[in-house]
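Possible race condition, two jobs.
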Amino acid sequence: MTSSQSDAATDARACLLRLAPYLLGRARRGVVGSSRYAQKLRDAIRTAAADGTARPVLISGEPGLEKDNLAALIHFGSAARKQLLVRINCALLRPDGAELFAAAGDGVALLDCIGNGGLLLDQIDRAAPALRPALLELARSGRWRSPEGGRAEHVFAGRVFLTAEKSEPDFDAICCHIRVPPLRVRRQDLGEWLRYGVRQKALSLGWSRPPSVGEGMVKRLQGYDFPGNVRELLVLIDRALRQCSGAHPEELPEDVFWTERRPQRARFDLWRWKPQLRESMRSPRFWNALLFGLVSWVFVLVNLWLWWGPQDRAHNGGLNLFWAWWWPLILLSFPLVGRLWCSFCPFMVWGEISQRLGRHLGLQPARWPRGDTDRWGAPVLAAGFAAILLWEELGDLRNSAWQSSTLLLLITAGAVVGSLRFEKRFWCRYLCPVGGMNGLFAKLAISELRAEAGTCSGSCSSYACFKGGPAEGEGLATAGCPLGTHPAHLDDNRNCVLCLTCAQACPHRSVQVRLRPPAADLQRDMAPPTGEAGLILVLAGGFSLHYWQQLLGRLSLAPASLAEGALLPRLAFAALALALPASLWLVLRPLVSRLRPASSSWLLLYGLLPLLWSLLLAQHLATGMAEAGLLLPVSTRTLWPELAAGLPAWRADPHVIAFCQSLAVLVGAAGSLLMLKRLFQLSLWSGPTLALTGLVIGLATAGRWLVA
């Protein structure tokens, strides 16, 4: 090798070392999708790559669209594919462009090192104003001068690519302009983007077989605008795969995909106001003592009481607790604490006990079946609740202690079997009838538990609040969320029982317990789970079933009572009463669609949810206010009648009960009117507003008449 050849090789190595931090070695991916936007973008890239004149290319679009990758596709698809492609961030260049134009110690500028390769000027719209004329001339003619004062004019022989986030008329006039549509415009491509990104990331993480992505998940994410576009989508995919990297499921669960929620206003953080509440509320000792030391054994004693005690409500304190105390109190609790009852529900306490015993004996529960479980779980749940309502009326459960206990034990058996079959509280989340009702009315609550998505995505890598794990920092060792939900995923209160397990596990203080406006979960853009609207109709049917005599009692074939007589006519009329709200809904649905064709008709059911809650509360207030205060004498009347006569008792005056019922219905009707106005975005005195107002007033009046 001659000395000149050696010097040239040395210069080439020096140039490569200078260019190394800026090199783009290859395109990361092609243009994904089959929509007309994706096809048009691919055509534009092919046209630019085949351009024999090597005209400069300007690629514009919102942040996160990987415009540098599109420039790489053009360069490596062109005749200059064997040349280098260098990316320079114009936002980081000094006003004189010295990093690009000035010569280094060897007398060679960075542009000289590129030779015939491609130069990508990224974020041209963020370049310093003093630098823009030089960059414009470089793109137009390739000519440039050193800022060190030299008069010699240099010519760049390669091709110039530029990217910008906003319109650049000066550059647009001299460039081949490619506009990249945002991801929210290409919603049709989202499924292909998801599946491609999951395959690409899973293989890079060492998965032997990439998981699938269900259509339900794609449809849910298509409702999100992705302000960060492709970059945000790829971060979402990476986070999803890392959350379930240990399990390698065949289909990715919905819970591992979480996006930024809409801005939430008017929130009051209880733990920031009273920090000492946080430590006391997240204490595992308190929860374990409550669940396993008290609730579990009280449940056993109540069932023994129901089986071995008197069988009517006037003499059995267990029945009094169930019908006069539990039902009114749980309905009253929904607007305050949502689904809190489920966190210490005795059904699932015994489910957890059986699950722990099963693990101790070597039985390992399976992971939850993934996919759109609500598609089959919600109809099963609604059918189960309908069966309970029919049993309640046909068997007169309010005055049959052993049947009430049988109902409780059957639900407990479902929780036990579900706990032995699947991990955590699969039964509670998808199949428990009471849990379904609690999750539905929890949307009305003024309290919520949420996590700060930014803190979770930026500071957490263990996801112990969701998956469970050992103690980390101030976080405690837990088994993870019993309902298998990350607190940053929560769009509403349906899948949060306020058990505070996530708050115990979180080492970053991301989890917050907050107060909010009532029914904040009911929004026009909400995405309710499949089949939940059916549960609303079943609950409304339970109300009409309870008052079947006023509604259907005058028909010629109506039985004298649903609790006595031949089973077939009783069952027929009970089913008919249960189906009345669904029949009314079938009539109203096409009318609602005409009010605002752009709105989904099922929004009407959610708008009427406050009224339904108030009617159920008014129904159970009659028993609660008349009999709850008789618990002590009722419990002792059979064994110690003399003692029962001297024990304190309380019973509300019928006029007071009627007033409280009317007040409850009035509050529910007002809440429904406000909900409907918000959900359908109606003006105050429009025709649709007056029609919906008349509907709410009519239903509230009919409900109050039935309760009376």
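Job #2 (started ~2 s after job #1):
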Amino acid sequence: MKNSATYKATDKINGFDCRPGIYTLNGASAMLHAVNFTIHSANATGCSVVLFKRGETEPYAEIPIPDSYRIGDTWSIMIYDLDIYEIEYCYRFTGEYDPRKGHLFDPKVNILDPYARAVTGQSVWGKKSGASDCYHARVCTDKFDWGTYHKINIDFSDLVIYELHVRGFTHSLTSKVKHPGTFDGVIEKIPYLKKLGVNAIELMPVFEFDELYEERHHNGDLLMNYWGYNTTCFFAPNTSYASSSEYNHEGDELKNLIRICNENGILVFLDVVFNHTSEGNEDGTVFSFKGLDNSVYYMLTPDGKYVNFSGCGNTMNCNHPIVQQFIMECLRYWVIEYRVDGFRFDLASILGRSEDGTPMENPPLLKTIAYDPILSGVKLIAEAWDAGGLYQVGSFPSWNRWAEWNGRYRDDLRCFLKGDNGTAWAAVQRITGSADLYPPEMRGQNASVNFLTCHDGFTMYDLYSYNHKHNEANGWNNTDGDNSNTSWNCGFEGETSDKAVNDLRIRMIKNAFLTLLCSRGAVMFFAGDEFCNTQFGNNNAYCQDNEVSWLDWTRLKKYREIHDFVSDMIAFRKKHKILRHKTSPSSLGFPDISVHNTYAWNSQFKNDDHVIGVMFAGRDEKSGDDAVFIGINAYWETCSIELPKLPDGYVWHVDFYTNVPYKSGEDHDKMISKNGSFLTLAPRSAVAVSLKKL
């Protein structure tokens, strides 16, 4: 960096050679002999770059950026002879301090660069580095070699998404990885994921966050911001997820994870949180957007208070042009520099609210994301609701680009599978692609992400082990978390040695997975569900950095039957294209989708009906005619279901039946009556049968 004879600086500021910087290059960028710093604020009157020696808490220099270096609302300066490996930096701003007007400028407060590529102070999980009361940024260089990387693409309806928490996935010693709780730890589990059959992983937040944000103790246990839905910096990966300190080229491990996943046919999606930040409300800290331009970046009431559509204290002002620009630059950065394959947007309905908080018919931010040429190849998935009461499942603005977490799928199928009255037709709608929510002629087959479980709520095992949430360990007297779980404990609350109860739970889990994996639309489930991981009834484990949230890999051996059932069901889904999307018409005379009750071709359901049949049919140009019939008996008594009659030369073959131990060796075809017209289903069981040519 140091070779002053090769350049001519224009100004000497506080002992540093400086000149105006590159105004379109946001953040801090290493140049040949200098570092370029660029930042903008509409309401600040002045800006300084504050420099720290590596690891120190007190600055060694402050360089005011001259007014002559300001163009419009942008300050840009090149500072020469800085050793990027030995410095850290932040900003200070001058301007009006009047919270009632939304202005919080204070020249004594250090402000983290929102464009920082790496943040100091939290490289070791759960430990603060040094005594600094502010975050420092590092100047990064990109030395990652992508090699012969070739981006893969998987059709949306073919996706089987596995949602996981980077730390919780491998932190337990039972994971037996060399680098537990890190990006490298996830890499070590790629062979497992590939064998399981999933083709996409969705990482819970990996942007830099402070796990010690609002840390507290309850009954002697440390509770923290474990999930990470409180972003500190949007351009930096979480340093504590790296297995080794990378310092000036943070992100190499995450890039390596994405590269190796793609090499193994697995896409990587990021769960991104643009709806709020970790600065909180009026009682929160000032370290980033508040001190940069509070009234621009946050939704405020007329008296300067924070609007809280996020449930986390503040709400990003997403449709302000400056905030739109920031979000777009951030998304493009992760696609260009990290080759990310898709994004899941937390509380995405907030991204469609205007600056006054009202929902917009055609939100400019969502439309810009949909049509952006850099983002055109990535998957966009919205959590189509927010904490302010806006629920947009089926109506989220899409431009045929946005997909949605189908919350209606989760709710309707949970109700039907546990035997609620009046839910049969809703279950059929969800299994067949939710055309009532996403009309194919308008949304195609790329809108619905079907799921029964995710990080937020019960695990699949807990869904059938608990009637009520058990969040006492969170320290809020069990008042936090959703009260409407539509779960069923199968007759006993929590763990039991009762064989009948446990057998029923296993059957219910298999019913759920069979239904999910035989439904039209993309599929998602939560990590560990395939081997009955439990959170002991906690349905809001956001603060539990312990055995509640860490996957217990010993359960893989204990519940191997469920794992193998899920893996083989995924393979079954991949084998039969008709389960995933419409194909060429079948020469058998069957429609693409048909609905049946206990009698074939009868699609009328009464309030107390608990048996449904769904048949998918079509023709694969390679394998010929195909048909799959799904029968579900959610009733508590044995029921028969009539199968559609097949042309001569074909019979029905039972591939999966949930009432018996999986791979028991039993001939399930005996379930079908001798004339091939009826199946007898045990109480609370499901079956998948496919076409077989004689």
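The CA atoms of residues 384 and 396 lie 6 Å apart.
Logs attached separately.
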